Structures are given as C-alpha cells and as structure tokens.
Amino acid sequence: MTGRGGGGARTFPPSFLFGTATAATQIEGGCTTSDWYAFAREPGRIKDGDRPDVACDSWNLWESDVALQRRLGMGAHRLSIEWARIVPREGAVDHAALDHYRRILGALGDAGIEPMVTLHHFTLPLWLAARGGVLAPDFAARFADFARLAAGALGDLARLWVTINEPNVLAAQGYLLGAWPPAKKSLPGALRANRALLEAHVAAYRALKDARGDAARVGVAYHLRVAQPENARSLLDRAAAGLFGRVFTDAFPAAVEARGAQDFFGINYYSRDVIRFSLRHAAELFADRRIPAGAPVSDLGWEIYPEGLGALARRWARRSGVPVYVTENGIADAVDDRRGDFLVAHLREVAGAIAAGADVRGYFHWSLLDNFEWAEGYEPRFGLVEVDYATRARRVRASGELYARIARERAV
Ligand code: FCB
Predict the structure, then answer these.
(1) Residue of the nearest CA to atom 10 in ligand 1?
(2) Is 169 in the pocket of ligand 1 (CB under 6 A)?
(3) Does pTM surpass 0.85?
(4) Is residue 374 in contact with ligand 1, taking CB distance under 6 Å?
(5) Over the stretch 317-352, which tens digit does the pLDDT of each residue have?
C-alpha cells in the first residue's frame, strides 16, 4: 500500500517540518462560552452523550504536551486558539487567555517547535452563534477583528497562520447534514455558509497581512478528498464524482486562489470517496459515497488510501503556485495496529511528491493526542499518544515512537 515509488528509502529535505496537529476544543477543556459547549449539552447530539468539558485537560496539562512533542523530536505543531475563550462576550477580551496562549507559543519556540496557529477550528463564541454564526451579516468583520487581535497579541511568536479549518466540512456538517451546530439542513444554506466563510477568510487574511506583512504566512487548511466513480463506464457515476469533486473539494480553494488570498496551501487529507450516482442522495450532490469491497479502513470505516495524498499534493502544488503543507493526516486506530503503516505509506507519498517537484514544506499528523472527535465523541482514537480519560495520563503509542524515528532520520 505504499503507492508509487516501490522499495527504496525516500528522504525529506533538511527544512521539511515534521509535526503534529490539535485543535482547542478537542483537547483543552474548560471553555463554557462556545457553541460546541452548548451543543454537546443537547440530548442526542454527540455519541454516548460525550462532552468537550474536560477533554484531555490540555488547558492545564499543556506543558506536558509540549514535553511530549519534544520527546518525539517534532519540528512543528499546529494548534488552534479558542475565539470563544479570548472573546467570551461581545466586545470583551480575556487578556489572561491571550497570555496563556503566549506561554504555549513561547514554550514551543523555546523547544525549537515551529507553531502554526489556526484562528477558527469549527467552533464559535456563543454570542456570535446567537447572532447567526457564520451567516451573521458582520461575520467577516468580526472574524477580521479577531485576526487583528491575535496578530497583535501573538504575532511575534508565530509565522504560520491558518485562518479557517476545513470550511467545506463546516458548511456541510453544520448547514447541510445538520450534524454539527447550528444543525441546519439546507443546500442553499450550506452554499451561503461556504460563501460567508470565504469572505471571512479573505478579511482575516488581509487583517493578518496588514498587521504582520510577510512575517505572517497565511493560508487555509482545506479538507480535500479524492472522488472517483464507482463504475468508470457509467456516465452517471462519472458525473456525480465530477460534481462532488468540483463543488465539495475544489470550489473553495479555487475561490481563494482567484482572490489571491493565500501564502501557502494547507491540505487535510484522510480518505477517498468511490461514488455511485444516487437520486436518494440528491441533497449530497447525488453522491452515494462508498468503500470498495475489501479495502482497508480505519476504526471509523474511512478507507485508507495513501495514493490520494500524493496525487493531491502534486496537483495543488502545481496549481496553486504556493508552498504546500499537509496540515492534517491521520487515522482512528484504537489498538494502533494500522497507524504505523498508515504513517509510512502517507509520508512516502509526500516524499514522492517532493521528489516529483512539488514544494511540500511540512506534514502535521492528526493528532498528537487522542481527543474529542466532534459528534463522534471520545471513541475514535486518533492519537500518536494515548490518553486515559479517567486519569488524563498520556502514553506514547508504538506508532508515535515510529514517527519520532522517521522525523529523526528524515527518511521513510
Ligand atoms: C478533520 C478535523 C479535525 C479532526 C479530524 C479527524 O476533519 O479538522 O478536527 O476531527 O478531521
């Protein structure tokens, strides 16, 4: 399953960043002012009634998390800062929360770990959610205010910034499938959310660049997938796969590109969709997304398809003309019997893309820790490091040790 390239070792350039990725709500705990805090209290929203109230308790245990990254020999870390914590009420700024993030970013820098800071990773302050969330008329302006605030308070400690994580996933889960806040089910609503997120990204991009100039490198973490027709001879399957690829995965990056609003291109990659045309799935662009018989899958049933990452990295490096980072890639694997092979196969794809001329600058594995996996709760285990939710103890998995070795040898 190593894709192209066959047997020989593949190496990474000396400047290539090996890192891990996390998001505030999924690990921190202790934030009561976000839409997800409220959403998780509504019956039936989250699997097993799980709540992000404590999560990995990283708000208190962040120093041991930095120590873990150090022990793994990481060169970078992608984290998000919680808007709802920093601006808990409209117009109010919690300076202690900003200071807390300053300490984390400072400690990462001291450890030689380059931070990549995400401003929006799915969650919103409750006050803004109550006003319409991403569809509030002033959403882009408020998000730009937040970007300006973050740039002023933290800008000297971070070079790499992600404005928005996976806008297409947020629009689909929150506005089309109704699985995440604000739990709406409307295709026009989802398209409006997508549009609003685009305007918000552009506004935040400009705010960060105005504040920091080229000292800030700013991009989006796009959720990209590979869409293929189940039956290559079926016109309908081909049309449905084409539509899904264009609308769900390509539209947002193409729009950002057209606005000239990115300094790098972030790829979050997990899986592919093998698509069968289906009238019953009209709201989902007629795409019945399936797993090929016998294909290897994660604990969440997502197909393991490393070739997709190499193909996407080559394609978007060429097309975007800016450096690429793999801003997320990982697997739910509680017993840790697939994560090692998954890492090797996906990193070989990245190395292969670099060898073919793609300017890929880094890879952030999702995730450092087991964490709160949104509506799936705590059951999926994405961590290189296992978390015992009874004690919050951390234990490095065998795949974590393997990743440390790859990062040390800079070869796979
Ligand atoms: C991505 C999200 C991230 C995490 C992984 C498994 O879509 O950005 O927060 O939930 O999936």
Answers:
(1) 373
(2) yes
(3) yes
(4) yes
(5) 999 999 999 999 999 999 999 999 999 999 999 999
